[in-house]
Amino acid sequence: MPVTRTMCPMNCHPTACGMEVTVEGDRVTIVGDESNPDSQGFLCMRGRAAHGLVGNPDRLLTPLVRETRSGPWREVGWDAALDRIAEAMERVGPQAVGVWQGHGNMANDYGVSLKRGQMERFANLYGCHHWNSAMVCWGLGAFGLGITGAIETNFKEDLGDNSDYVILWGANTVSQAHTLREVERAKRRGARIVVIDVRRTEAGALADEVLLVRPGTDAALALAMMHVIVGEGLQDAAYVAAHTVGFDALADHLRPFTPEWGAARTGLPPERIVALARDYAAAAPAMIVLGGSSIHKGENGWHAARAIGCLPALTGQFGRPGGGIGPRHGARSHGAGFADLSAPERRTAPLIPNQMEAILEALESGAVKAFISIGSNLLSSFPDTTRVRRALARAELVVAYDLFENQTIREAADIVLPGTIWLEEIGVKATNGWVHLTEPVLPPAGQARPAYEIYTGLAARLGVADVYPWPDQAAAIDAALDHPGTGGATVAGLRANGGRMPLAVSPVGHVTQVFATPSGKVEFLSARAETWGLPPLPVAPEPEDTGLRLAHGRSFAHFHSFYDNGRVLPALAAREPEPVLWVAPGDAGARGLSDGDWAEMWNARGTFRAKLRVTPRIPEGTVWIRDGWPGLNAVTDATALLPEAALDAFPFPVGQSSFAARVELRPAP
């Protein structure tokens, strides 16, 4: 039987696993690809569960429409569905239409963003609004690092080969299995592993030391560490002088942020903060692996990433094998890049900012009357679910393109279009060091179609030219790969090379010591931030002092909200059949709650029911839950964290809302 190489449809970037697929009649067999240079045959439980997408009885296989959002669905053809969408778009006009792509449409192009480029090309040529879902995940943390200049990362293999000291900072690497493998390899070489988190995570089992901090206090810990490093003269003075801006201002700024101050904020003993700072400054080399969405959802916001990004500059770790910032979700290596297919230069209409608050305000005000969701689940992924539900209810038309029903489809959609799974269309994915072709092995099931047929179908009806200038999707991939960072990769070249090619990138970030700032140096003091109305130096905003602090994170069985939050995949649903909320014994006892009880988490915004796991692995004052459960965001905050002037500073979207939540617990009714 012929074997086809592809990539796992879970977007665990920078972990991305190779698969080998065989088809024999109706039987599809999927195993790990041992020849894949990143995964080496490994598939986690999410990847092994992906076979459940094939022949899944819950899959959407025909377009659906309904007359009211509480009414029944009826099947229609693609032409009828597209006619109805185009009629509504003509009625409201391009500036009242918004298109949003989520991770569910990136199952076979993550890292390359081919499909996002095609979506944005349609929006730019038609004149409607488009937004990018990276703001839900990693964009806000990247903004904090970007202000400092530290947006490039080192390879995971560089960590395994060279790091002598590794801090997993808010990075429970269950979502980065290959990174965890390299952490294990570094530990076997003798590297010291430190985990900083809000609970004792699975990654903590590898650690030589686990430091539990209160949610929202990571920036305070980084500032207190910098106070020790600068106060004791442990910084790399030559590196600071050559490659940074604003050290003297930073040194004065750090004086109040003593270890005792940091202890009061974080809950750590001051002596442990001192020891951490000294150990990190003395290590040669030391790497920080920074968490993705979880560390930046809450009172930290982007401040944690900004403060943490200063540490490798103070100690001369950037551009050094084994140093700097390690692999993180959404980051790229030095020299990486892909061609932009979105034709931004041809756009003539203004854009509503790529910010959660701006999107909600546009729906609430009626500025956006038609909303098209491509592989996303707004009601699950945006904070303050009640507000999002009301905002979507005001839209005249809500369209969803997806594989399965989800909360947004069930509650808010008027039209549903069925999408193809990763085995039914050609694609291309990138890891930090490689680009991989994903070949189709199955015909589209039912009436499922790839997303670009939405844009071509609407463009034909709306009279928009040049939306899809390629003869087929393979040619579109070639256009996306036409960038120096790919090393000349093409679909033909990838096929000739077994489906993969190395990217023309450096395994060490910032190897040229040029940083993404106006000065080209690491900016402790950022005049640019000040012009945006943001603090010119890293700060740790004072957290609220009431209620339990809600923290979010990942788990082995979950990553994003697509595949109906994993509920349609039997293996994942069985692993996590219900939401589980971690709570400390003292906090549970004070509220008359016990392990295994169902409790209601509540605040002024809303409520959410979960089963309690009462455990000493989380400190008092903190509760933790895996994110992505439908309804969880009823309690989280939708307040915007950045001014509009700062939203276009970097080539990635940063307009995330707070997601912070102070909650209380009571027995569930």
UniProtKB/TrEMBL annotation:
The keyword Protein biosynthesis does not apply. Keywords: Iron, Iron-sulfur, Metal-binding. Coiled coil: none annotated. PROSITE patterns: 4FE4S_MOW_BIS_MGD. The keyword Glycoprotein does not apply. It holds the Pfam family Molybdopterin. This is Anaerobic selenocysteine-containing dehydrogenase. The lineage of its organism: Bacteria, Pseudomonadati, Pseudomonadota, Alphaproteobacteria, Rhodobacterales.
